[in-house]
Specification:
Largest sheet: 4 strands, mixed
CATH topology of the largest domain: hypothetical protein PF0899 fold
Number of domains: 2
Shape: rod-shaped
Order of helices and strands: HHEHHEEEHH
Distance between the termini: 113 Å
Length: 196
């Protein structure tokens, strides 16, 4: 082998070694870059997953809260409907009381609502027709210290119950007025009985 061939071979070997080193460094850097890119991509993917989970948790929480609110609202609506139905049934039952029970109720209402002085009690035509003979006397016996009440022979256009008149003052004691006046109190009494 000539000197020139040895020099070419040496240069060729050095070039191969240099190029192998360059390729090795480039491969190492490429692997490092690839590793960092994978790590960065994994971190970003995990962040996206974490954010998606948080968003999903928020959406589920809002949906649960709305569902609970709707459930509570519907429950209250049903409870109120049941209470109203019971009160309507009670009202209808009172309207259909036998005469004695009905007029005993009116007597208690009149005694409770009678004012001082002379009053006039107005009934509807149906109640005037079935009025017990002693009704006026029973009222006046019960309220004699406060005054007296006279039952008018002229019917008034009312559904039931009575209207008590003292001069310019009218006291509405129809069953609907009594129920409406005491509706909140009646509901408060019924709720614990119905929904223990």
């Amino acid at each position: 082998m000539t000197g020139l061939e040895r020099i070419v071979e040496k240069i060729s070997a050095e070039n191969k070694q240099t190029s192998d080193e360059i390729v090795a460094r480039a491969t190492e850097q490429a692997n490092l870059l690839l590793s960092r890119a994978r790590q960065d991509a994994n971190e970003k993917a995990q962040n996206v997953i974490d954010d998606a989970k948080k968003q999903a948790d928020r959406i589920v929480g809002i949906a649960k809260s709305q569902a609970e609110s709707i459930t509570r609202t519907r429950y209250l609506q049903v409870r109120n409907a049941v209470v109203n139905d019971v009160l309507s049934a009670a009202y209808e039952q009172i309207e259909s009381f036998p005469d004695k029970d009905y007029f005993d109720l009116l007597l208690r209402l009149c005694v409770r609502n009678a004012e001082k002085g002379e009053g006039v009690l107005f009934l509807n035509a149906r109640d005037l027709a079935r009025l017990p003979q002693t009704f006026e006397e029973q009222i006046n016996t019960a309220i004699f210290e406060r005054g007296a009440v006279q039952v008018s022979k002229t019917p008034m256009e009312i559904e039931n119950g009575f209207v008590l008149v003292y001069g310019d003052i009218e006291i509405n004691c129809t069953l609907r007025a009594v129920f409406d006046e005491r509706m909140d109190e009646l509901k408060d009494l019924l709720r614990p009985l119905l929904f223990a």
